[in-house]
Amino acid sequence: MKTILRILLTAIAVLIIAQFLGGVTVESYPAAVLVAIVLGLLRAIVKPILIVLTLPVTVITLGLFLFVINATIVLLASNLVGGFYVSGFWTALLFSLLLSLFQSILFSFLKDETS
What is the largest CA-CA distance in the chain? Predict the structure, then answer.
C-alpha cells in the first residue's frame, strides 16, 4: 500500500513541477502516474548500472556526476513515456533536482511503520 501511495505522490509532484517548469510537459494524470512508475523502475534497474560504469568519473567529481545520471534517467523516461516531454538536458537536470526535493518533503509525511 505504501508503494502505491509513493507512486501517487510522485505523480502529483511531477504534475506540479510540470506546471511551473518550462520545457516539461505532462499531458494527463495517467501519464504522470506512468512517469512515476517508469522513473521508479529506471532508478531501480538502470541507475545502479550507470553508477558502476561511471564510478571513476563520479569519484573524480566527488559525486557531482550523479546529477548527470539523474538527468539522463529523466531524459530516458521522457523518451519511453508518451505524454511526458522534457526539452533538454538542463531542464531534465532541474526537473530531477526539484522532483527529489518534492519527494523528500512528501515522503516525510509517510511514517515508517517499523520505527
Answer: 41
CA gap 28, 54 in Å, rounded: 35
Beta strands of the chain (E only): which ranges?
A: 24-26, 84-86
**What's the pLDDT tens digit per position in 4-33?**
999 999 999 999 999 999 899 999 999 999
| Residues sharing a CB contact under 8 Å with residue 57, sequence separation 6 or more, in sequence order | 65
Cα–Cα dist 52/1, whole Å? 31
Instruction: Give the tens place of pLDDT for each residue, 95-111.
Output: 999 999 998 988 888 77
**What's the pTM?**
0.89
Tell me the domain boundaries of the chain.
2-107
Look at the block and give the residue holding cell 518534492. 102
